[in-house]
Amino acid sequence: MTEEELYRPDIHFTPPKAWMNDPNGMVYHKGVYHLFYQHNPDSSVWGPMHWGHATSIDLIEWQHEPIALFPDSLGTIFSGSAVVDSNNTAGFAKPGETALVAVFTQHNTDGEKAGRTDFQTQSLAYSIDDGKTWIKYDQNPVIKNPGIKDFRDPKVIWYAPKQKWIMSLAAQNKILFYSSKDLKNWIAESSFGEDLGAHGGVWECPDLFSMQYEGKTIWALIVNLNPGAPNKGSGTQYFLGEFDGKSFKSFTDQTLWLDYGPDNYAGVTWSNTGDQKILIGWMSNWMYANQVPTTLWRSAMTIPRELKLMKLGEEWRLTSLPVSSLHASGKNRFQKNEVNAIEKVKISGSTVISFEASAAKDFSITCMNDEQEKIVIGYDHKKQVFFIDRSASGLTIFHPEFAGIHIAPRLSNHPSIKVKLVLDKTSVELFADDGLSVMTSIFFPKKSYQECWVDPQNGQIKGLLLVQMGK
Ligand code: FRU
User: Is 22 one of the annotated active-site residues of the chain?
Assistant: First the structure.
């Protein structure tokens, strides 16, 4: 079997060739979802960053587009965001045109090599042909570096109450907020998080946005962190609170995680999707991203996920579930209302598995090939944790931290657990309790998994459904 057949996912986005990391510049415009991404087109390891580009109308089937942004004399193109400048605040559009504006970090490698601290600055590019081609602003950078080595990943939103743009920017161990009327001139507003959240590594790729819950506005701030995640390496924490156009205040001092698995990083949301918030993450981890055993391309994105607010007692949480369009193309492969003993089901390629189980008993799902390689996903009711065990999943020796069992706490106290698993050739995503406990994990079997064993252990699994996805 070729690498392509064995490892290229069916329903997860991958670059046509070479290296990919963070999703960038996600914007919904004229019925099209744009996805840009950190891309080194000349190698399958990280290097001089460009913005690769893809488009989709359903967030599942992607069409590759030409590279959107290339390095220039200011630096390579690091992560950032894009907005639709409907009011032409930046003045890039002529009458009758609408400009898309990308805001991104330029990383100056020469400055970094020379030992300077000001080598990351923020720049603009715009498109007046609906994202097909991009023109860099001729007065870049728009934010110079004040002497902070890690100063990057601008995410811009429109703050309607004050008719201005707000930028969240990661600055080593905190998030800085800036505001602007025209996307070109930025004023520093405030700083958040030095003394809150997880700080086991550098803060990167923030995202501030508002959400509605029964007529109430709640603000979410996503902060990616590397290293320092619950299962080591890269991870995504979030804060919920208030934002007044100037500063963000968190409701609690608890650290909250969007995904407890090892392989969801740098996720941020699409802009211009109204009240619907859709996040996509890079399905890897900086610990081993450059060593995973594919050579023609490296890394995939997660399934796009819809974020919602949930009330847990008096506290707020963010949940994530696969976008509903994932379900449009599936074909039911197996269905059973009550499973009381191990149920073996053949699989091929990508499969969505869903069921409901009692929270008072353990359960597990093992997917395997005939070489005894397997991935085990389950729940331990005594410890109140979900787990994904990839220690015998296939190739693991490329990095000492890859093999292992990863866990996520159960946060709900509902007597039954709703489970959804999105299984692809080289990844599994677990969404439990309506997306309250989420885990993402990648794996590389030497032969594709052909069968899943659904094991209710001493309990009962209800409403088991396996849906065959993709080709
Ligand atoms: C996160 C990150 C960003 C940076 C980009 C560089 O994975 O380190 O902070 O902009 O990747 O590729």
Answer: yes
- Name every residue whose Cβ is closer than 8 Å to that of residue 306 and which is 6 or more positions away in sequence: 276, 277, 278, 279, 320, 321, 322, 323, 324
CA distance 457 to 353: 17
Which residues are registered as beta bridge partners of 388? 377, 406
Number of H helices, E strands in the chain: 2, 34
Query: Residue 308 has what pLDDT?
Result: 98
Pick from 45, 119, 153, 280 the residue to mutate for probing ligand 1's pocket: most ligand atoms within 8 Å of its CB.
Answer: 153
Q: If you measure from the C-alpha of residue 51 to the centroid of ligand 1, how many angstroms do you get, rounded to a whole number?
A: 12
> Residue 148's pLDDT is what?
97
Can you tell me the distance from the alpha carbon of 296 to that of 98, in angstroms, rounded to the nearest whole number? 37
The Cα–Cα gap between 95 and 117 comes to: 41
Which tens digit of pLDDT belongs to each residue from 30-54? Answer: 999 999 999 999 999 999 999 999 9
Query: Ligand 1, from 152, 172, 203: best to mutate by most atoms within 8 Å of Cβ?
Result: 152
Q: How far is CA 206 from CA 10, 168, 174, 209, in A?
A: 29, 6, 10, 10
- The DSSP secondary-structure symbol of 231 reads T
| Sign of the torsion formed by the C-alpha atoms of 106, 112, 114 and 116 | positive
For residue 466, the one-letter residue type is: L
Name the residue type at position 275: D
Residues 6+ apart with CB under 8 A from 158: 83, 164, 165, 166
State pTM to two decimals.
0.98
pLDDT exceeds 70 at position 471: no
How many Å apart are CA 110 and CA 114, to the nearest integer?
6
Q: How far is the CA of 411 from the centre of ligand 1 (A)?
A: 30
